[in-house]
Each structure stands twice: as structure tokens, then as C-alpha cells.
Amino acid sequence: MAKQHVTVALSGDGGDELFGGYNRYMAARKVRGPMQHLPAFARHAAAGLLRALPPATWDKLFDWARPVLPKRFQLSIPGEKARKLADVLTLSDCHAFYRQLTSHWTDPASIVIGATEPQTLLTDPAA
Fold first, then answer.
1. pTM assigned to the model
2. For residues 14 and 25, what is the distance between their CA atoms, to the nearest angstrom?
């Protein structure tokens, strides 16, 4: 039926997720490796420091420091990235880490009234 009326149909089959097409997957590897070696108290302290300033302040600081920062530290939306880093620093297991990076909401079922999120390998404790 789609062939009769549509030239292109996007399936949303998760190609970016399967083949690591989003920047977050590369960033996750850079963060998760070193993060695993830090003790929990150090990760929580670092998260607290990152949360001490609002994202807009981080953005202003990075804008001010941009001329002297090495290229790899000249980030777009640094405040948002600092907030996301603070969120994942306190997570202890790789499943929670992955879910935090790939979800826009910490409780997706709360977005639609009366909905429940289906269990997956990442969300089902019995799996």
C-alpha cells in the first residue's frame, strides 16, 4: 500500500543505535572507561561540582575561555554536556549508564498518562 502512494518510507529500525551513528555512543566510550576506575565518592563529588553551576554559566565560561582552550575542549553546548556528565557520573552499572545516555526521560512511561514502558533486557531485573 505504501508503494502506491509513497516514494520513500522511513522505518525507524534503529540503524543509528545498531551502528553507533550518534555522537553519544563515542562520548560514552570516552566517559565510561575512565569513570569505572574512580571510586564512588569521587564520582559523586565530581557530579556535585558540575551541578554547582547552571548550564548557562558553563556556556558563558566556555565562551570566555574558548580562545585559549585546545580544540578538543571547544565544545558546543558545554553546559548541557556538563549536566549530562553529572547525571551519568553517579551511576554504578553499565545498563543504567546506557539507558541514561539514550533516553530523553528518566521515566518514559510518565510522559503518556496511563502508559507503561515495556520490559527490555535493560529494564527487567529478572533478565
1. 0.67
2. 14
